[in-house]
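Each field is set out as follows.
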Amino acid sequence: MKKKSILTLLMCLMCLMASAQPKFASKVSKGIVSLNTYDRQGNLLHQGIAVFVGADGEAVADYRLFKNAYHASVIDTSGKQMDVDYILGADGTYSLVRFRVNTKGNAVIPSATSAQPMKSSLFVLGRSDKGEMENAQATVADTSLIQGKYVYYGLDSQVDEALVGSPVFNQSGTLVGILHPQMGGRSYVLDIRFKEVLKMDAFPSNSASVALGNIFIPKALPNTPEEALVYLYTKSRTASNDEYMDMVNRFVATYPKNAEGYLRRATPLIDLTRFDEADRDMQQYLTLVEDKALGNYNVASLIFEKLRLQPEPAYEKWNEDVAIGYVDKALAINATQPASDTKTSENAQFRILKAQLLMNKRDFDGALALYEALNEEKGGEPVYLYAISMAREGRGDSIEAVMEPIDSALSKFGTPMPVEAANYIIRRGQLNANAGNYREAVLDYNQYAYLLNNQVSPVFYYERSQIEVNARMYQQSLDDINKAIELAPREPLYHVERGAIAVRVNMFDECIQSCQTALQLNPNIIDAYRILGFAQLQKGDKANARQNLQKAIDMGDEAARMLMNTYLAQ
């Protein structure tokens, strides 16, 4: 806000106090502040009024002032400017925001604790569209209830629309509500007690969710650690790392003895490659967590996720053996506890993680031993049979040995097979394709699509098309690659594959068109130049064929060089 505007507001407030109309104006004036909101670039978005309703900077204002705001500040009657730290709650339907300003010892305007009677006088204090402080008086003409508890006051007259969002008082100077726009020739006032609704919830109402989503100023956390943790979880999937870090830092500062906060903070720290800080948080988590077995397992899981999803940059303190050490601690702790179904289930979960870590370490024998033991204990559950197949494949067993547990798993699903069997079917299809059993693989892929009601990805159609080529099922292959292109028309690889299939069945024009489309999407695909050149050769277009084969040769394609030497040697 420009200095001139600030001074204008302050002078207007002083004039309002001097006018003594209404009498309580001087008493409440220090609790009424000017509010400025700003957009992403720092440009002034809206100007208006806010009211301090609680200690430590708690204030309310019209929601419309905050919509699309990235920053906000208030200026009190002394000219002191204070930033808005957090949004405490918002509601778009009733256009109110509760927020906290970075200040202490602020003036607080007392709020009404009960409804105002009919025909009582109310006073509006605000600023006109010219920036001048104004007041208006009206009488309560009718009332209705919001949520069966809060009053929506209808006034007997129209109040200047420029004062919408201004505080409304009773005769004793108690804050009654916030002025709302006119409807049907009458102005309305929202009960100030409605601010009690404005709080951060793990699962906010639709009106609150929309309003909060339109405000880009940091939000406060819910009031209990349990709700705050749920809120953090929901936000972890949508918030940026910086935004999430801010929230979890505030959680740790508010609840320093809550173990979960440190574990939650370790995750974004890992994403930001701040591994030393993440490790310190994980150790603090282990110190505070009550269930030490589960705590060690959670730390091992976090390390595994880092190794699996973010192998680079490496962190010298974390590797598979370190994570396995935490899992072994978890198992050892549980071994000292009385036996129970919960502990048995936990131990299976812990051992699965250990097997996954061994797989990541490429210790396939160790992983296989764990999976086979679990499978025997659980009576041959499909999930363990699938894992056994993966471990056997990892250590290089025969295709028969790798396929056997998948067939066993599928036999347990019965007929007709449920949707859960789809992953096992596609696994068998991939194994059949790797073994050269192409027609059997196509049958598996067909069954997979059937189980999923053909709700499959373009990658599926691309893979099945390639298998069908090897099975010499060219028409089916063309149909599938066309479907992949239909679903993902801007994927150049699919157009190249269509060209490769077309050339096999002497569809040279279609091949040329497909390769040209692929090169329009990505001019650096070597295969496209080679296949295009070969198709042009078959059409007798030696000049363009030479040009495209040479491009492939220049990009390092030896197959294109062989074609050039065979068909276009000088």
Summary: Confidence is low (pLDDT under 50) at residues 1-20. The first helix runs from residue 3 to 19. The first strand starts at residue 32 and ends at 38. The chain has 23 helices and twelve strands.
